[in-house]
Amino acid sequence: MEQLKLETRVKSLIEADGYKFKDLNGNGRLDPYEDWRLSPRERAENLVSLMDLDEKVGMMLINTRFMGLTQQDKSKTSHNGILDEAIVEKGETIFTQEKKYGTTHTIEERKLRHFILRENYSPRDLAEFINTVNEVCEGTRLGIPCIFASNSRNENAEPVFGMNDAAGIFSTWPGTLGLAAAAKGDIANGGDASLISGFAAIAGKEWLATGIRKGYMYMADVTTDPRWQRIYGTFGEDPEFISDAIGRLIEGFQGTTLDKDSIAMTTKHFPGGGPRENGFDPHYKEGKWNVYPTPGSLEKYHLPPFAAAAAHGTASFMPYYSAPSIKRSVVQEFQGEDIPFEETGFAFNHYFLNHILRGKLGFTGYINSDSGITSKMCWGVEELSEAERFAKAVNAGTDLVADTNDIENLKKAVENGWISEKRINEANVRLLEEMFTLGLFDDRTYVSPEAAEAFISTPEHWEAAYAAHKKSVTVLKNSGNTLPLTQEKLKGKKVYVELFHKKPEGAAKYGEQARKECRELDLFDMTDNHEEADYAILFLKPQSGDYFNATPGLLELEICENKTLKAMDGTEYQETTLQDMERLKAIVENVKGRGGKVVISVNFTLPWIVGGIEPLADALLAGYDTFYNAQFEVMAGRQEPSGVLPLTLPAGDHVIAVDENGVCVSRNDVPGYDKDLYMPEGMRYAYKDSDGNVYRMGHGLKY
Questions:
Q1: Which stretches make up the Glycoside hydrolase family 3 N-terminal domain (predicted)?
Q2: Do 535 and 486 touch, CB atoms closer than 8 A?
């Protein structure tokens, strides 16, 4: 057996049987949990037997931890400004309201060892921060290290706290819908989804280099309700493809088995967040319900990707906030058995977590709740105290509760006898077994900041990401072979580029970026005056609603400005998803009026209704947070378009209309490609353009 290369910063090394080990508890002898020759399970069970109740309680909570670099008052930092030690008496986030403590206090006094990293500093800074947190952990009674989790970091997207926390530092690929568009395009061309495997292999190694060892990713949710605001983070609406992609992602990040080179994956949001009640999201009370009005939809559409995740050994699952609605659903079954719906959030739902996930799907890892389930998103258990909510979740099968440092209420639930010591020990063994398996107690406690910086600068990683951007571009319409914009077509012609956004500052920022990338490619003779342009390339970045607050009415999917809508209470209000629509139309009229052509690229984070945009375009493209330069290359013919739609675009408001009883004309729990099975006679769900193209999942033109 080969000696592991061990590094300590606080404790000492000891020798036994000719090998070196960390003396993590400082007692001068080798304890089983310190012996890297033993199995992770044996070590975890020994360590749990040595832990007191406070240490066990702290182990079962995961909390956002900010870096000292973010703290403006440097007197409230430690370790040369690396750790944030500030105390916030009434800290409030979208998830919870509670007192926030400094890093050292949280580790030493509150005993937490699981943390969420949401910041987006350099690889060197991230590695130094995680190393320093682990140094503090090493100095505690048992020397238990920490593990940092993060939402995905390798997709290009506008930042949103709690969802898109970080982008642009690690190799930057298109959004997950773009990865799906590219991979499904490869499949349509006779290939497979190996692009997903390549992405995961590269990204996983980048995470490993910085010391981030737990991924809150990826979403295995199947898109069925087109108004759900988290669609942008999914892989579309095809359960078969998503199952394949999730398996490839787990193998790429974790490997075929979890080991010291793995990133432990948390697959979310079991059993699927797609079947929303008319789009409302469970981050707020209006969206608390999952609805299943279609017989067999849960088993046919929503559970297969989670079954694939379990089969590929995902380290953990994250249940969604939402609760299954009895009133809005028909009885669902799984493997021939009717499912009894308990109207509580899935982190509190014993049947789903134990009978289906562990019993039927064979999952053996741990359950990590979504953030705020004992506070602001406690659907179905609102009447319970916070300590009772902890008891309900843990007894239902949840092992790790996010995003909180509320040790008091979890400890109260244990001391009141509402949670057994056996159950607390079981959760701790599950959590610690993963940490031992990842090598965090041994030779993977610390990483090299210099090596992290160098590795993430690897040109081949960024080149692979850029190739995926180009593959993701989807040509929806190409009237009169407007594209490609070859040098022959453009001889003596001028090209105008502008970007439209919901916010003026977004239009200015991203518009300048698009023009800059176009100039750098030097593919077109550009003009800053659309009135002298022969071709106009217009990028549209629509946005709708707010991620963490309900809209007054239903989420708007039409690309529109100042559209009058009716709120749920019957009052009228106006909604804008894209500003300066009149300018957009004026540019189109001017260019076309002089015999020119208009190319429009829409950024799809939702399945937008394009009926007001498509007729304006000679060529219409879909991007998915796709780099502008990659789109220009496809437009110019440098790259043959191969991307296809990962979801179906609705024909208009009429196919997603909701009646006075809250029932949608198209089924909330059925993917777009199958919605016609349940539509009223004569009504078709998918949009059909002026050239006869139908914008159904899988649509994508070539030159």
A1: 119-432
A2: no
Residue 82 covered by a domain? no
Host domain of residue 574: 474-640+648-678
Question: Which one, of 569, 537, 527, lies nearest residue 552 by Cα?
Answer: 569
Q: Is the pLDDT of residue 484 over 90?
A: yes
Q: How far apart are CA 453 and CA 109, in angstroms?
A: 33
Checking if the pLDDT of 434 tops 80, the result is yes
Q: Which residues contact 122 (CB under 8 A, 6 or more apart)?
A: 169, 453
Q: Tell whether 172 and 310 lie within a shared domain.
A: yes
pLDDT, tens digit (0-9, with 9 covering 90-100), for 150-179 = 999 999 987 665 556 667 899 999 999 999
Q: Which amino acid is at 666?
A: S
List pLDDT tens digits, range 208-247: 999 999 999 999 999 999 999 999 999 999 999 999 999 9
- State the number of CA atoms in the 13 A half-sphere of 586 facing the CB: 8
Three-point CA angle 160, 162, 163, nearest 5°: 60
Of 546, 540, 586, the C-alpha closest to 560 is 540
Contact 339, 302 (CB under 8 A): no
Q: How many CB atoms lie within 10 A of CB 425?
A: 16
Mean pLDDT of 326-342: 97
Q: Classify the C-alpha dihedral 33-35-41-46 as positive or negative.
A: negative
In this structure, are residues 614 and 690 in contact, taking their beta carbons and an 8 Å threshold?
Answer: yes
Whole-Å CA distances, 221 to 66, 233, 413, 594, 656? 29, 9, 32, 47, 20
**Residue 84: which of 113, 63, 104, 111 has the closest Cα?**
104
Summarised one tens digit per residue, pLDDT across range 286-317 is 999 999 999 999 999 999 999 999 999 999 99
Mean pLDDT of 257-268: 98
* Per-residue confidence band for 94, with pLDDT thresholds at 50, 70 and 90: low
| Assigned token pair, 658 | 């909701």
Residues 415, 442 within the same domain:
yes
Place of tokens 């892989």: 235
Q: What is the mean pLDDT of residues 563-568?
A: 94
Examine the domain organization and report whether 408 and 486 are in the same domain.
no
pTM beyond 0.90: yes
Burial of residue 410 (number of CB atoms within 10 Å: 0-12, 13-18, 19+) = buried
